[in-house]
Structures are given as structure tokens and as C-alpha cells.
Design brief:
Layout: H1 8-25, E1 28-30, E2 33-35, H2 37-54, H3 58-81, E3 86-95, H4 102-111, E4 115-124, E5 128-137, H5 141-152, E6 156-163
Antiparallel strand pairs: 1-2, 3-5, 3-6, 4-5
């Protein structure tokens, strides 16, 4: 009676293909950012190390584990030193006869530490004028500063500051 032996190369190929699909499932594009790449790479690397252990290659598995942990640790330190940008959907609403001019609005945002893009305008119900935009900052404390500015500004009737999750 013939016994069927599993071909380790084909078995590894099947495992890595399946893990590739799992890894692809954790990658998400959200606005201007892509999330899950490190998680996907970690899943793939864990499967690779598992295959090495499964076929009895303990030394390469230990080496791969040490290298993987070293690279992940190094990049965590590098990432912590890089500037981070927060993207925020921002709406601010005024009475139609008391609208803050756009250049003054942009000056307030710039002085608070924001850069602006995609400004749009809306006339809401005929009596309210609304600016809508995406703003960006590298300091998340600026968000509460801006909320305080709009809260104290007499002509502002309504505002919304909604982080995009970046």
C-alpha cells in the first residue's frame, strides 16, 4: 500500500496563500490613510515562522523571530518620532447677514495651527451660511483650542469638528 507524503513546499505555498488572504482582510483604506499594513505583515511573518518550526528548522525560526521583533521595535521608535497629522471635517455656520469673511475664517484656522483644504459653502434654510472644509493639524490640542474660539465667537451659530480617524 502506497502512502501519500505531503510535499512541504506545496503545503507551505497553500498556507502562505491562505494567510495572504487573511492579511489582505485587515488592510483598510480610510480617507487619506491606509491602516493594517503592519498587522498584515505580522500575520504573514507569524505564519512563516510557524512553517519553519513545523518542518523542524528551529534555528532559522528563532533567527526570524528575533529579526521580526527587532524590526517591529525599531520602526515603532521611528514612527513615534515622525510628525503625525490629524485630518478633520470642519463645519462652521453663521447668520446669513453676519458671515465671517472667508479670509478671516482662514486666518483664525491658520493662527490656531490648521491648514485648510476643500472649502465649500452652503446656504442652509435661507437664513444660515455655512463653510465646510477639511482641516489638518499636527497637534491634536489645536482641536480643543479651535472649539473654544468658536464657542466664544459671537457670530458663530453652529460648528462641528469631526476627526476623520486618521
Amino acid at each position: 500500500m502506497d502512502t501519500v507524503r505531503a510535499d512541504p513546499a506545496r503545503m507551505a505555498q497553500g498556507i502562505m496563500t491562505g494567510i495572504g488572504f487573511l492579511g489582505a482582510g485587515v488592510i483598510f483604506k480610510e480617507g487619506l490613510s491606509v491602516r493594517g499594513l503592519t498587522t498584515a505583515a505580522s500575520i504573514w511573518m507569524t505564519a512563516s515562522i510557524g512553517i519553519l518550526v513545523g518542518v523542524g528548522f528551529y534555528y532559522p525560526a528563532i533567527l526570524a523571530t528575533i529579526l521580526t521583533l527587532g524590526v517591529l521595535s525599531l520602526f515603532r521608535v521611528i514612527e513615534a518620532k515622525l510628525p503625525k497629522h490629524s485630518y478633520i471635517h470642519h463645519h462652521v455656520c453663521f447668520d446669513r447677514d453676519n458671515v465671517l469673511p472667508e479670509d478671516q475664517l482662514l486666518a483664525v484656522l491658520e493662527n490656531t495651527g490648521f491648514s485648510t483644504s476643500n472649502v465649500s459653502y452652503r446656504l442652509n434654510g435661507g437664513s444660515r451660511f455655512e463653510y465646510r472644509m477639511i482641516i489638518r493639524t499636527s497637534d491634536t490640542d489645536n482641536v480643543s483650542k479651535l472649539a473654544e474660539i468658536w464657542n466664544q465667537h459671537d457670530s458663530v451659530r453652529d460648528f462641528r469638528i469631526s476627526p476623520t480617524g486618521d
